[in-house]
Specification:
Layout lengths: L8 E11 L4 E9 L2 E2 L5 E9 L2 E9 L2 H22 L2 E5 L2 E2 L7
Antiparallel strand pairs: 1-2, 1-6, 2-4, 3-4, 4-5, 6-7
């Protein structure tokens, strides 16, 4: 389910999408505070912004921890998909990384 807004941000990470020609696009990944949803479960919204693109979505869980963990596990895939859209490689902390959210 897509949330209407991100809400209060609890964590944020800035990444670089580096294209073959060396040009760089900054990607900002923000995680919102988990909140109860209309069904009695929990929702943890997240947002990715790069260039003119913004993705706002959420993961759900039976409690706030499950929703948050689901969001963190989802972010690597979301970042990879967005980087591919820009035909770029993900860079974080001056290096190339397959995973920037999960060890």
């Amino acid at each position: 389910m897509k949330p209407e807004r991100l809400g209060a941000v609890v964590a944020e990470r800035k990444l670089d999408f580096v294209r073959a020609d060396g040009s760089t696009i900054q990607c900002t990944v923000s995680v919102g505070t988990p909140v109860p949803d209309e069904n009695g479960d929990w929702c943890c919204p997240y947002e990715l912004r790069a260039g003119d693109d913004t993705i706002l979505f959420a993961m759900h869980g039976v409690d706030s921890m499950q929703a948050l963990i689901g969001t963190l596990k989802t972010l690597d895939g979301e970042v990879s998909r967005m980087a591919k859209k820009f035909e770029a490689e993900v860079r974080y902390l001056d290096g190339s990384h397959d995973s920037v959210f999960n060890p």
